[in-house]
Specification:
There is one protein chain. The chain is of the alpha/beta class. It has 2 domains: about 180 residues, Alpha-Beta Complex (Quinone Oxidoreductase, Chain A, domain 1), CATH 3.90.180; about 130 residues, Rossmann fold, CATH 3.40.50. The longest helix has 14 residues.
């Protein structure tokens, strides 16, 4: 089968033909219909994240159909439409797994990072981490839900029930989460790069009550803020924009260093916390919410062989919404 593989961090992906093999115990073989291009893929390809398994097929926003069952799989059937996210395997036995915090499992494996992902025609996946999807969903539009949507949803859960929510970085995750927030009746404040008029226009179309640059102050204090942009300098800016008792959530897997800032920005019981991965419960809740909230994704489509181009466009900030690869 065809796959786009990373052989060395910092280099271009290569188009390879590889033998996938049969699914092992607990696995399924998936015929891939679409795979989203996530900023985490950039962090893997560019070497920001340590020790990826090389050579590697990136990609962890996968939508496809079950083609073959491995031994012991009873929860899925051939032909089922499924989605595969970033968290691809956990031990199931540690304190974190048994306590409902499998996202923190120390032995976890990650799709498109430590196990091969979805920049390919087919993949193998742990059946426990394949989530049933409505077969009527357009695969390309559904793909960003598997990470941008899931991580945004988990970040919102950790941010709390605040009414005025700031979203720093208005890309794939924020444009999905903005729709959830508006459906819930909350107010969205969108922070973008100063020159990114397309992102501001998208935010307004999705109901944002205010848009501006990260260095700007919103007209009212935020109840909470979620940072999708991997820019540590934004943390003190978000704290300054957040009311006493508010929460600032760092939603990325990688971020530049947070600069020193005065204690007064954290004082009055403001909080900073991070998001790590997701749980299966997050996925079940969010995917059930998608049709209720009428979430639609804004995407640009690329053939599988143009994975490098899609990554370049994401790196340069040229993608509005999400990029998706189609085998």
């Amino acid at each position: 089968m065809r796959a786009m593989r990373l052989h060395r961090c910092g280099e271009r992906l290569s188009a390879d033909t590889i033998n996938l093999g049969a699914p092992g115990p607990g696995q399924v073989r998936i015929a891939i219909d679409a795979c989203g291009v996530c900023r985490t893929d950039l962090h893997v390809v560019d070497g920001d994240l340590p020790s990826p398994r090389l050579p590697l097929v990136p990609g962890h926003e996968v939508v496809g159909r079950v083609a073959e069952l491995g031994p012991g799989v009873t929860t899925l059937a051939p032909g089922d439409r499924v989605g595969v996210p970033w968290l691809g395997w956990t031990c199931g036995a540690c304190d974190y797994c048994r306590g409902g915090r499998e996202n923190l499992c120390r032995a976890a494996r990650f799709t498109g990072y430590t196990i091969d992902g979805g920049y390919a025609e087919e993949m193998l996946a742990d059946a426990r981490y394949c989530f049933p999807l409505d077969p009527s969903l357009d695969a390309a539009h559904a793909a960003p839900l598997l990470c941008a949507g899931l991580i945004g949803y988990r970040a919102l859960r950790l941010a709390g029930p605040g009414h005025r929510v700031g979203l720093y970085g208005f890309g794939a995750a924020a444009h999905i989460l903005a729709q959830v927030l508006r459906w819930q009746g909350r107010e969205v404040f969108a922070f973008t790069r100063p020159e990114d008029q397309a992102a501001r226009d998208l935010a307004r179309r999705l109901g944002a009550v205010w848009t501006g640059a990260a260095i700007e102050s919103p007209p009212v204090a935020l109840d909470c803020a979620i940072l999708f942009a991997p820019v540590g300098d934004h943390v003190p800016l978000a704290l300054a924009a957040t009311r006493p008792g508010g929460m600032v959530v760092c939603a990325g897997i990688h971020m530049s260093d947070i600069p020193q800032f005065p204690y007064r920005l954290l004082w009055e019981e403001r909080q900073i916390r991070s998001v790590a991965n997701l749980t299966r419960q997050d996925a079940l809740e969010f995917l059930a919410l998608v049709p209720q909230a009428g979430i639609e994704t804004s995407i640009e489509r690329h053939p599988l062989g143009d994975a490098g181009l899609a990554l370049d466009r994401l790196r340069s900030g040229a993608v509005t919404g999400a990029a998706v690869l189609l085998p």
